[in-house]
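Lab notes, practical 5.
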Amino acid sequence: MSGRTNQEPAMALEQACIEIIPKPWGSTDLLHWSGIGHPGVPIGELWFQRCEKHAPEPALLLKLLFTQEALSIQVHPDDAAAHGMGLPRGKTEAWYILSSASDATVGIGLKTAVAPEQLRVAIADGSIAELVAWHKPHAGEVIAVPAGTIHAIGAGLVLAEIQQRSDTTFRLFDYGRARELHIEQGVAVAHAGPTKRTLPARRLSDVRTLLVANPYFVFERIDLPAGLIWDLDAPCETWLVAISGDAKIGALQIGVGQGCFVEAQGVRIAPGEAGLSCLVAYDASAPSRDLLRRVDGDGMPRFRETVSPPTGPPQAVLNSPVPCTEARS
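Output from the prediction step:
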């Protein structure tokens, strides 16, 4: 279970607390994304967390990742496999590339399907790195990583990740680092073959772009120009992180690399002089038609955005209202 119940969620608007996660592959320079400094200690991830200590555990986890070295080749279980291990949930995730060095690579799935025994041998002798399907990512690219997908993130990247709230990772190859590998667990949960290509991002309106929609979360990019006011309706758990510009969100002031948590309420967004670009993730299975409304000059939310249903598979169909997840099995 995700920690949710059938009770109505409590209203919340909070500036996200940022948890610093050191990693051997991380960076000592977080650029303009964060003023957090830990000289000599490589920071791999910044986790956006609720500051309310007694709040229910969220269903989702939003992160920023900074890579100076390659991460391990790894795989995560799906819900069914996780439940079989006594874990509360699996781990499906998605990445949004914020910056990418010219030689950066990511690996998603394998080039060809292999049998479990072949995968065991490749993990044991390190040749799994040659089986992975590598490609060069670019800034603004979104990459879906369903649970069970063998994957890897290379050096030279800054990316935002949204995932089911689980830290269950099975390492299959770790570039000689003295960390445990998880051969049998990884083989048991891996879909050892190519993965489906991520659908391209699709415009939902002039200011909304759908990045990913799946049974666990919706991930969008929102670009709000200066001089206009917006109301955001967040009946479900909703996370925002600013990637450009700044804004006043309710009583909060949010700038680049900062985020907030909203649930069971609407909030007013007033972009700054440079506008606001942010990533938004919410606990739903399809994008909400009523996520944003433009506010008229007298302060009344008179204009609902014209939202065009995207073409594509049924997962992309717009729903209104958001189908909040009450409980996950």
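Observations recorded by the TA: Residues 311-317 have pLDDT under 50 and may be disordered. Residues 116-125 form the longest helix (10 residues).
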